């Protein structure tokens, strides 16, 4: 409770957190709060302007209610932004811990393989993975997770390698503790705050990433509502109905900005190195 109070002490953080919570609640309660079916077509109201009666954010080129599609699209967008992060964090953390614990051939093999993958830009690697897996929401999430694993491994390895020299970790090894116990019970808890910060900072990036893949047509397919796909479809009518691509674009921008604010605040509170740089006082060890 004390952490939450301190975390929300700044108005900017409180406002950003409120926006994120509202979006998440709208996504969860989409069937209850959505005014219309997101795929329902109103033939006589194609490209209806903002504040049209019954359609406060207007309709798109097919005559579908934009507000309803934004609410339902939040579900898809948030899932595609969080699931790949979770998958990549689980796989990357395990491989990073193994590379940090087992010095030698295994360490060398994992890190050299990651360096090869680093030669490919993140977006290109995800697009290539999507091409291999095929179109669709599940395949797109797998592609993004695969593309992110090398970055997670590098982050975990950089944090776990120094942790191997901590006194209690060395004592556990001397006592004959198993490798899994040392990695999961000794090293992982010591680097967990840094992993939380890293994961939360990746969520807004992956939301934009997912929207980009949908925009390119290799993720979500019509008529499923998704913010990136809504922007791509609305681009066709931007000259006659600029609000159709602009509204989902602004929503995507605001949500990702708020997530970045929350992530930055988490980093200041959970990462000791960041707290020291900002002059925060660390708790006494005794």
Major sheet: none
Mean pLDDT, as a whole number?
Answer: 84
| Unreliable stretches covering 5 or more consecutive residues | 275-286
Give the termini separation: 22 Å
Sequence of secondary-structure elements: HHHHHHHHHHHH
Question: What level of helicity do the residues show?
Answer: over 70%
Q: Any idea of the CATH class?
A: Mainly Alpha
The named CATH superfamily: MetI-like
Radius of gyration: 22 Å
Quaternary class: single chain
Provide the CATH architecture: Orthogonal Bundle
Number of domains: 1
Number of strands: 0
Into which percentage range does the β-strand content fall?
Answer: under 5%
Number of helices: 12
Instruction: Fill in the CATH topology.
Output: MetI-like fold
Shape field? elongated
Structural class: mainly alpha
Compact description:
The chain has a single domain (2-42, 57-277), classed as MetI-like (MetI-like fold).
Structural overview:
The protein has 286 residues and is mainly alpha-helical. The chain has a single domain, classed as MetI-like fold (Orthogonal Bundle), CATH 1.10.3720. Helix content is 72%, strand content 0%. It contains twelve helices and no strands. The chain is elongated. The protein starts with a helix and ends in a 9-residue tail after the last helix.
Give a topology summary:
Blueprint: H1 2-7, H2 11-28, H3 30-33, H4 66-101, H5 105-118, H6 122-133, H7 137-163, H8 167-174, H9 179-216, H10 227-234, H11 243-270, H12 272-277
Helix pairs in contact: 2-4, 2-11, 4-5, 4-7, 4-9, 5-7, 6-7, 7-9, 8-9, 9-10, 9-11, 10-11
């Amino acid at each position: 409770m004390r952490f939450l109070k301190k975390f929300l002490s700044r108005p900017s953080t409180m406002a950003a957190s409120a926006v994120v919570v509202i979006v998440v609640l709208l996504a969860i309660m989409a069937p209850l709060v959505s005014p219309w079916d997101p795929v329902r077509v109103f033939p006589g109201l194609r490209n209806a302007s903002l504040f049209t009666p019954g359609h406060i954010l207007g309709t798109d080129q097919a005559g579908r209610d934009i507000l309803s599609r934004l609410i339902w699209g939040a579900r898809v967008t948030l899932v595609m932004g969080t699931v790949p992060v979770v998958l990549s964090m689980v796989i990357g953390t395990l491989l990073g811990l193994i590379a940090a614990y087992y010095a030698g051939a295994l360490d060398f093999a994992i890190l050299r393989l990651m360096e090869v993958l680093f030669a490919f830009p993140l977006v290109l690697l995800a697009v290539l993975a999507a091409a291999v897996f095929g179109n669709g929401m599940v395949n797109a999430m797998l592609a993004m997770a695969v593309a992110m694993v090398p970055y997670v491994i590098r982050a975990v390895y950089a944090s776990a390698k120094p942790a191997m020299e901590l006194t209690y970790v060395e004592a556990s090894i001397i006592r004959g503790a198993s490798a899994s116990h040392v990695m999961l019970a000794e090293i992982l808890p010591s680097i967990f705050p840094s992993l939380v910060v890293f994961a939360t900072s990746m969520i807004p990036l992956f939301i934009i990433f997912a929207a980009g893949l949908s925009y390119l047509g290799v993720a979500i397919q019509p008529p499923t509502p998704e913010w990136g796909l809504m922007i791509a479809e609305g681009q066709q009518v931007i000259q006659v109905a600029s609000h159709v691509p602009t509204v989902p674009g602004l929503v995507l921008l605001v949500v990702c900005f708020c997530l970045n604010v929350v992530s930055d605040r988490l980093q200041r509170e959970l990462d000791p190195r960041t707290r020291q740089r900002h002059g925060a006082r660390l708790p006494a060890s005794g």
